[in-house]
Amino acid sequence: MAAKAPKGKGSHILQTSLKTAFVLLGIALLCYLVIDMGAGTIMAQLSRFGWWFAAICVLGASWLFFQTLAWRIMQREQFRGVRLGFLFNVKFISDALNTLLPSANLGGETARLYFTSGFLSTKEALAGVMVDKTFEYGAGIPFMILGFLVAWAGGYFAKPLVLPAVLCLIISLAGILVFMGFQLKGMHPLLAAVSRFVPPLRRLIEEKERQIRGLGVHLVRLYRVPRSRTLAAWGFHFLARMTGVLETILIMHVLGSPVGFGRALFITAMVAGINTVFFLMPGQWGISEGSHLFILHSMGYPPLVGLSMGIIKRIRKLAFAAFGMLMLFYYQRARFAAKKNGHG
Questions:
Q1: Does position 210 have pLDDT exceeding 90, yes or no?
Q2: Is the Cα torsion angle 125, 126, 129, 132 positive or negative in sign?
Q3: Global pTM?
Q4: CA 112 to CA 77: how far, in whole Å?
Q5: Which pLDDT score is estimated for 160?
Q6: Of 12, 38, 207, 231, which alpha carbon lies 20 to 30 A from 286's?
């Protein structure tokens, strides 16, 4: 008689298979868009960038730097004595893994837990990452609202984009409120209530009750820091998104379709909204490029401009991912050497 698979292994394999399938579907969509538009035509557009690509990378790095400041300020006591440069590198590696792994933009966050394990407990690190991700997505709400209001006042809120914009805003707001409430109300009572209908989950919660309650304590503690620190963290995440507006302005300029700050804000807000709704789509492969095409075409720009913008941003992400993997290799090698010398 064949041995039974360990509990949970089958569901894990299914989840991994689904995530991989989503990635492949996204890549297939991107390939279809490129073929439909013409690879040669797109390459001609991308060849315009040259050294401008370095400026795009600087803006992308600025986005990650502001996110690092937000993460650091919320855990200021735990990060006392830790170099800002180190945290930035960890954030860079985390973002790289989120780009490459079929893990719905969450797999890379384990890198933050791994690299902070030397000075944070698992519960402290996990609570910090959960609150930081909440603030990251939460900052997108006022950013989207501002972008939509500016477009409405400027008269360039294209009708085909009204419904998607409203849906993105509602879904994003609902998701943030539920996730934040889940953290503030205490994770164990809510998980226990849900587990009544899911026996395997109930067994897991019973086994991990002490850890879950301990995590809840750290979460509540982070939300009770002085309001000035909370606002500062939100502010840094908002500034990070503003660097995306500057990136949009630069890319549109290079593509020969210059836009002002208001239009760039609206385009970036729409893309942010769609990416937030599809955050479970690993890396937003195909989704991000398609959303750029749809948004800009709805605003009257040629489809080639929208797709080219999505692709140049994808290239920047892949360049960051490659550099992030080099940094990961370097830090892992350094940790291994330190452990080896310590045991010697």
A1: no
A2: negative
A3: 0.79
A4: 17
A5: 86
A6: 12
